[in-house]
UniProtKB/TrEMBL annotation:
One of its GO terms (molecular function) is DNA binding. GO terms for biological process: phosphorelay signal transduction system; regulation of DNA-templated transcription. SUPFAM superfamilies: C-terminal effector domain of the bipartite response regulators, CheY-like. It comes from Streptomyces luteoverticillatus. The modification 4-aspartylphosphate is found at D55. Keywords: DNA-binding, Phosphoprotein, Transcription, Transcription regulation. CDD domains: LuxR_C_like, REC_NarL-like. SMART domains: HTH_LUXR, REC. The lineage of its organism: Bacteria, Bacillati, Actinomycetota, Actinomycetes, Kitasatosporales. This is Response regulator transcription factor. Residues 148-213 form the HTH luxR-type domain.
Amino acid sequence: MTIRVLIVDDQMMVREGFSVLLGAQPDIEVVGEAVDGLDALRKVAELRPDVVLMDIRMPGMNGLEATREIVAADAGAKVLVLTTFDLDEYVYQALRSGASGFLLKDASARQLADGVRVVADGEALLAPTVTKRLIQEFSRLGTPRTPTPERVGDLTERETEVLVLVAQGRSNAEIAAHLVVAESTVKTHVSRILVKLGLRDRTQAAVFAYEAGLVRPGG
């Protein structure tokens, strides 16, 4: 299936550059571009993309606000946040707002395309080593939201173990190898975790694990 992508950035050169890079991929189609958050909301409703490449810092409605609106509208689009800085103070907030991942703007063409595929597929956290480091950083900076004991208690011991591994940035294949189980079993566990905790995707599950104290920043 072709992955439909909407590019949101206030700089024309950035939009055009990403459009050219992604448009060269046989399984990715750039269906539109937006110049700010408000424009993005209109384009998402009109074009129904699978993935939204969202810049954070834009005039008017910024990417953080737009991400919240898109997720709240449950349009089906997954938001991949783009940022210039690997320690952007808004990245963690964007993840908590429902973004499915993030990517640095200096990523290579291959990383960009792979990032879009990963977010569209929902299989793994984007760029696990970087994602893990950023989630850890912003777990320190963000205002903790202690999950209710009931939510954590809904998980079985194995599901809790899988959640911790997800928060460490491991893919389904890596988790399966670590636990010595089939990859399909891991996928089932992850699906059940998301349902039980009322979460949208693996990225939110990772943030939840840090906020619940199941994984310690730096650990």
